[in-house]
Amino acid sequence: MILVLPIMLPLLFMVALIFTRRWLAFQQVFSLIASFALTFLSALLLAEVSRKGIMTLQLGGWPAPYGITLVVDLLSAIMLTTTSFVALVVMIYSPGFIDKERQTAGYYPLVFGLLMGVNGAFITGDIFNMYVWYEVMLTSSFVLIALGGSAEQLRGSVKYVTISFVASIFFVSAIGIMYGQAGTLNMADLAYKMRSWEEMPYMNSALMLFFIAFSIKAALFPFFFWLPASYHTPPVAITALFAGTLTKVGIYTMMRFYSLFVVEDVMFWKIFLLVIAGLTMTVGVLMAASQFDIRKILSFHIISQVGYMVMGLVIFTPQAVAAAIYFTVHNMLSKTGTFLAGGLVYQRSGSYDLKYLGGLYKSMPFLALLFFVPAMSLAGIPPLPGFFGKLFLVKGGFAAGDYLITGVAIAVGLFTLFSMVKIWNEAYWKSEPENMPAPSRVSNLTLAASSLLVLAVILLGVFVGPVMKITHEAAVQLTDPLIYIQAVLGKQ
User: Fold this and answer.
1) Are the C-beta atoms of residues 107 and 147 closer than 8 Å to each other?
2) Exposed (0-12), middle (13-18) or buried (19+): which is 360, by Cβ within 10 Å?
3) What is the phi-psi region of residue 380: left when phi exceeds 0, alpha when psi lies from -120 to 50, beta otherwise?
4) Is the pLDDT of residue 151 over 80?
């Protein structure tokens, strides 16, 4: 029954917080304890799956594919653990940055509602339930973006929810086609049947609709425009949580579907998605280089970095997929860290605009360090985890003979370094502008949260060997879908 807990615990926490949302001190302490419990549970699941193999649960005692199936393999467990840790850090950060009106208006219950949807998407073994968890996630994230009701937030939330509804239409249309053709939505059963069919009419159409939906969720080219238009509007704690979780759910789902269902026209899908990955990396990094708002620069880099993950997936060797999983974990931590550091800049200086910032390294060097480490990791500077993630992806690309996309990945890494150095020079290194307001006090809680995340980034680089061993085992499971099918259905 432990497999139910990643869904049930956030639900119970959310209900408890709804009924106590006027007791602010209780909400803060309870949310921290609940987030720590989720992180501990996820780490326990990761240890169990590493030791025992893929874990499954058939709810209600109905055997697959007739009942609701929950599945936790290494990829699911890695994503659960990283997401829970990111949420824990954001919970530590939130009291120092989210105003009391938002906290008492439902901020904490909404975060756990979001985590329930994210965790459900990670462990479901059924396509329709995947859609349901996406909608749970969408509902919570939409309200979080709009929470506070400023005009800028409402504009951003309308763009976000509109494009998300479009993605949902594609998603549910693909489900209808898939069920009409196969008579099942259990992912293992569907993958098993697809490998025995001689002809699969309309399956490529259904897969294209799925990939459009996931591309919107993951902010891939050309569906990325909603992200920079909405992510900079809420308080940065919310943006940091989104940056570390939401687009990565789209990437996780793409990994799951690509490994299980792309059995026909494999070369078409590989070329198509490599082109999308290359364009995503290139357009995202070039748009980031043209911005002067810290949040917008980092938002465009969310888009750019997603391209690396898709690149590793569609090369689809154990080496490349392991690199993509490691890179995803690094990005969830480092990207969240840069947003939290951007929030510290705002607390200190009252602005996100680089034109009105400066001198932060001289006035508060520790604050500069909290940005420098995750930013240089994103740029791929050794010995930080971003360097190892890109190195393994490049090695995987060259080993597979995919030289063009590998060259694009290397070039985009240089432009990423340019953007991070731009923020460093403008906000931290140059002299303070003459009209810069008097510095404000930075909350100890926000400093503690950012420090914890920076420590996690450093440790991910220090222990790259053991972590890569786990991601390689996850990649082996992913690139051999029969392992997943056997675990769920008991079929060879």
Assistant:
1) yes
2) buried
3) left
4) no
Burial 152-178 (b: 16+ CB within 10 A, else e): ebeebbebbbebbeebbebbebbbebb
Confidence at 81, pLDDT banded by 50, 70, 90: very high
| Residue extents of the structural domains in the chain | 2-489
Query: What distance in Å separates the CA atoms of residue 60 and residue 4, rounded to the nearest whole number?
Result: 12
The fraction of the chain above a pLDDT of 90, given in percent, is 66
Residues 345, 367: contact at Cβ < 8 Å? Answer: yes
What does the pLDDT look like over 101-120, one tens digit per residue? Answer: 888 888 999 999 999 999 99
Is the pLDDT reported for residue 227 higher than 90? no
Classify 332 as helix, strand or coil: helix
Q: CA 297, CA 299: separation in Å to the nearest integer? A: 5
Among 342, 373, 395, smallest CA distance to 462 is for 373
> Quick one: CA torsion of 417, 418, 422, 425, rounded to 10 degrees?
70
Q: Write down the pLDDT at residue 31.
A: 95
Q: Yes or no: say if 254 and 321 are a contact pair by the CB < 8 Å rule.
A: no
**SS3 call for 208:** helix
Under 8 Å between Cβ of 387 and 381: yes
With contact defined as beta carbons under 8 Å apart, do 260 and 187 qualify? yes
Range 420-428 average pLDDT: 89
387: Cα separation from own chain's centroid: 19
For 487, list phi and psi in degrees, rounded to 5: -65, -35
φ, ψ for residue 293, nearest 5 deg: -95, 125
Q: 241 pLDDT band (50/70/90 cuts)?
A: very high
What one-character DSSP code corresponds to residue 4? G
The predicted model scores a pTM of 0.95
Q: φ, ψ for residue 56 (rounded to 5)?
A: -130, 155
Q: Look over the chain and give the mean of its residue pLDDT values, rounded to a whole number.
A: 90
In angstroms, the Cα distances linking 50 to 86, 104, 410, 454 are: 21, 40, 32, 26
∠ CA 442-444-446, nearest 5°, is 75
* Position 390 confidence tier, pLDDT thresholds 50, 70, 90: very high
